[in-house]
Design goal:
The protein is of the alpha+beta class. It contains 14 helices and 15 strands. The protein has a domain of about 170 residues: Chloramphenicol Acetyltransferase. A hairpin with a 6-residue loop joins strand 3 and strand 4.
Length: about 500
């Protein structure tokens, strides 16, 4: 019998992101959006915060997770979401202002300060800051949401709920809501025990079918176990120690870059690979030059990146709740001095990582943990970063190719933010929007005072690959025979139908 109260348990993966957070490793994700400011201003000229709060009140009224907080199951301690009876939107929507001249350097400093503070665990785990005083009358929005609540693809869904396709939108409708009755400790404990009790019987049926060799269960189970082995092999072997893997503190630096998406697609089409391959090749070349500049010998470095991947199914494709993400560990060839060979090796490495099905192994481990020992994922999440299986994080989230608006204000730029793990001093996140690719670089304040040098190196690598792509021969056109065959087929179809009618690089 379902409980009569409103509570939603965190999955093992969501609980892991909550459990691995520390004073120095904050586990919030986020974004920095920059808007044209005129539509967001009050008659006096400043930001119309009441208008913004009304707009966000409408979003919150339709998104229950934004007004829920964490409670713990007695004895077991597993976290669950419950409605916050003291929810106050004014706590979460905040306002600050840059002093003149209001340039991007000042904005980046404010972003670093905002992201250097953990979210309050006694309240819903999100904040939204609006920043006035930017040059050109622009307005920035800094959004931070705990990773236990959302992943990259979920962040896109939340962004789409906040923004509109119309420059002159209808006033947002606010849905009336009343906080649900919170569960008692006994109710939470009973629900958690009932959840775990379903697994042993299902596991017994799976094992019985596997041993009998009936149906597709046996190869599926064997494949999951093999994928788990691949994952453990990648996760338990340490990468090389580099200047990007010191002991991180609580304070952050943030920087960005922006590229026309068409440039990256041109490189991909001329030189081969995927958009992600081009991104990883740029990062590999930039890190190589960066470490050489710090006096490191890159000839024998085993340098790896964690590349999160979206594992949403059709049912959760547009969900803004929870995490449906796994990760591939991809080695980057820092020892390779030639950019075309570096790209080729990156392409081969990503193909091998996908073939090893590390993501599938992670899903199997999460399901096993969720049903039997949810705390297992937390312990794994705490131990694995100490083993240093990767040196950095590079994640790419596709966004909408069309313009979006916040209460009539056009979204100009949006830079993603991904958190640092222990002993990982820099992380790179990318987001595509309206024909451009936006890069967000998050770094430890003390470990990377020269973060801008790394950003410049990434931009230089992209320029180099673009020059090589332009110089390369364009893709060969389809062979004439195939084109003729296709035209003949079209003519035959027409006859049978009778009379029926049918650069952009810009750095701030």
């Amino acid at each position: 019998m379902a409980p009569h109260y409103a509570a939603d348990r965190l999955s093992a993966l969501d609980a892991m992101f909550l459990g691995i957070e520390s004073h120095s490793a904050h586990m919030h994700v986020g974004s920095i959006s920059i808007f044209e400011g005129d539509a967001l201003r009050a008659p006096g000229g400043g930001i119309d915060m009441e208008k913004l709060r009304r707009g966000m009140e409408a979003v919150v009224s339709h998104t229950p997770r934004l007004r829920q907080k964490i409670e713990r199951t007695p004895v077991i301690g597993h976290p669950v979401w419950v409605d916050d009876h003291r929810f106050n939107l004014h706590f979460h929507i905040r306002h600050t202002m840059l002093p003149p001249p209001g340039d991007d350097r000042q904005l980046k400093e404010v972003i670093g300060q905002v992201m250097s503070r953990s979210l309050d665990r006694h309240k819903p785990l999100w904040e939204m800051w609006f920043v006035d005083g930017l040059s050109g009358g622009r307005v920035a929005q800094i959004t931070k949401v705990h990773h236990c609540m959302i992943d990259g693809a979920g962040g896109v869904s939340l962004m789409m709920a906040m923004l509109s396709l119309d420059a002159d939108p209808e006033p947002p409708a606010i849905k009336h809501w009343v906080a649900s009755e919170p569960p008692s400790g006994a109710q939470m404990l009973a629900a958690e025990l009932a959840h775990r009790a379903t697994f042993p019987l299902a596991a017994l049926r799976m094992a019985s079918s596997a041993l009998a060799g009936s149906g597709p269960v046996r190869p599926s189970l064997r494949g999951a176990i093999e994928s788990l082995g691949d994952l453990l092999q990648a996760g338990l072997s340490p990468a090389s120690a580099t200047a990007l893997n010191g002991r991180i503190g609580a304070f952050r630096r943030f920087d960005w870059s922006v590229t026309d998406l068409e440039r990256i697609k041109r490189i991909k089409n001329r030189l081969g690979g995927t958009v992600n391959d081009i991104v990883l090749a740029c990062v590999a070349g930039a890190v190589r030059g960066f470490l050489l500049g710090r006096g490191e010998d890159v000839a024998c470095i085993d340098f790896r990146t964690a590349a999160p991947v979206n594992v949403r199914d059709a049912q959760n494709a547009n969900s803004a709740r929870g995490n449906f993400v796994s990760s591939l560990i991809v080695p980057l060839p820092l020892d390779e001095p030639l950019p075309l060979r570096r790209l080729s090796r990156v392409r081969d490495a990503t193909e091998r990582a996908k073939a090893a099905q590390q993501a599938r192994g992670a899903e199997f481990l999460e399901e096993l943990s969720d049903r039997m020992a949810p705390g297992l994922m937390v312990q794994i999440g705490r131990v694995v970063p100490l083993l240093r299986p990767c040196n950095t994080i590079v994640t790419n989230v596709p966004g909408p190719p069309f313009p979006l608006f916040l209460l009539g204000a056009r979204l100009l730029e949006v830079y993603p933010y991904v958190p640092l793990m222990a002993h990982t001093s820099v992380a790179v996140a990318l987001f595509s929007y309206c024909g451009r690719m936006f890069w967000g670089f998050n770094a430890d304040w003390d470990e990377l005072p020269d973060l801008d040098d790394l950003v410049t190196a990434v931009e230089a690598e992209l320029d180099l690959l673009d020059e090589l792509a332009v110089a390369a021969s364009p893709p060969a056109p389809p062979r004439r025979r195939a084109a003729t065959r296709k035209a003949t087929s079209r003519r035959a179809t027409t006859r049978s139908s009778g009379n029926q009618q049918s650069h952009g690089r810009r750095r701030k």
